[in-house]
Amino acid sequence: LMETQESHIRELLVWIEDNLTNPLSLDIVSAKSGYSKWYLQRMFKKQTSLSLASYIRARRLYLAAFALRYTQKSILDISIEYQFDNQQTFSRCFKKHFAESPSVYRHARKQDFSHLVRSLSVNQPGDIKVDRIKVAKGQYAIRGKSYPYHLDITDLDKSHLPIRSKIKETFYALLGERPALTYSLAQFVPDGERVRVDYTLGVAADCPVSDGAGLEALPDISGDFCRFCYAGKPVALNDHIVQMYTQVLPQLGLARREGPDLTMFNYSLNEREELHLELQHLVPVTPLD
Q1: How far apart are CA 67 and CA 129, in angstroms?
Q2: What count of other Cβ atoms lies within 10 Å of the Cβ of residue 182?
Q3: How far is 72 from 94, CA to CA, in rounded Å?
Q4: What is the mean pLDDT of residues 2-7?
Q5: φ, ψ for residue 255 (rounded to 5)?
Q6: In a 3-state reduction of DSSP, which class is residue 58?
Q7: How many other C-beta atoms lie within 10 A of the C-beta of residue 264?
Q8: Which percentage of the chain shows pLDDT scores above 90?
């Protein structure tokens, strides 16, 4: 029985995730689940340690926070999209949850990822090892090429692997080879209703490439960073990076400062001929207070 209940809740969590911009009253959710309202709430709380209503509200506020930060949608439109009665109700809920108003959150120079409740429908990868490092000016001299792409808010924290794999193939075709070490720079920029991901691939400035590649010198990367090292299958990487942002940075009392994330990676085939990724991911950080 426990396993059946767990799988029902798992299915329900996925369904909730797909319907955060639709009405999700207790009547609607319990009808979808097939349980009585009383039983569903008890079961949900037992399995997730959260009340159903507060979980739905927290997930909507998570996406609303991303929409404020990474799109140019108005606060009113964001309120309506995430099913708040009006802008005042949204602002009150938002301030209670994040301890600042939507407009202050939107315009803050540093990004504070505290109080973001991740979707329970995705994998939680467990503890990840992160260290603080300082990157000196001129430490990385990189030449590269930019490949921006656009996403909707709901896809922002999902894996960008399908898009980025195509971009990497294009870049490697341009170079005429796959270099021993590839660099990528990435940051999110509000662009109308969607998010523009400024994604740049590069190689060390002294890496020999064909003259026709047309690579440009990339801006210098320096300052304080949090570094996360990963080795394994490319497919599991995204869950770790989202966890780094939503859990590890707040635990360390850090916010993300301006500037791109820097990733250094190389691929190899393991003895089973599976693609193996070794990677360092650096997030520019600053103390929260």
Answers
A1: 29
A2: 23
A3: 18
A4: 80
A5: -120, 165
A6: helix
A7: 19
A8: 73
Nearest Cα residue to 132 out of 227, 222, 221, 223: 227
195-219: buried (b, 16+ CB within 10 Å) or exposed (e) per residue? Answer: bbbebbbbbbeebeeeeeeebeebe
Cα(97)–Cα(61) distance, rounded to whole angstroms? 8
**Cα 207 off chain centre by:** 31
> Are the CB atoms for 278 and 180 separated by under 8 Å?
no
Q: Which two tokens stand for residue 289?
A: 């207070």
Tokens representing residue 148 in the block: 């921006």
Q: Is the pLDDT at 210 greater than 80, yes or no?
A: no
The span from the CA of 126 to the CA of 95, in Å, is 29
Rounded distance between C-alpha atoms, residue 71 and residue 194, angstroms? 6
In the numeric block, the tokens 């108003």 are attached to 101
Cα–Cα distance measured from residue 27 to residue 33, given in angstroms and rounded to the nearest whole number = 10
Question: How many C-beta atoms lie closer than 10 Å to residue 279's C-beta?
Answer: 20
Burial 122-157 (b: 16+ CB within 10 A, else e): beebeeeebeeeebeeeebebbbbebeeebebeebb
Model's pTM, two decimal places?
0.89
Which comes out higher in pLDDT, residue 76 or 209? 76
Quote the DSSP letter at residue 219: P
Determine how β-strand 130-135 pairs with β-strand 254-256: unpaired
10 Å CB burial of residue 40 (0-12, 13-18, 19+) is: buried
**What is the pLDDT of the chain when averaged over all its residues?**
92
- Tens of pLDDT, residue by residue over 108-150, are 999 999 999 989 988 776 677 899 999 999 999 999 999 999 9
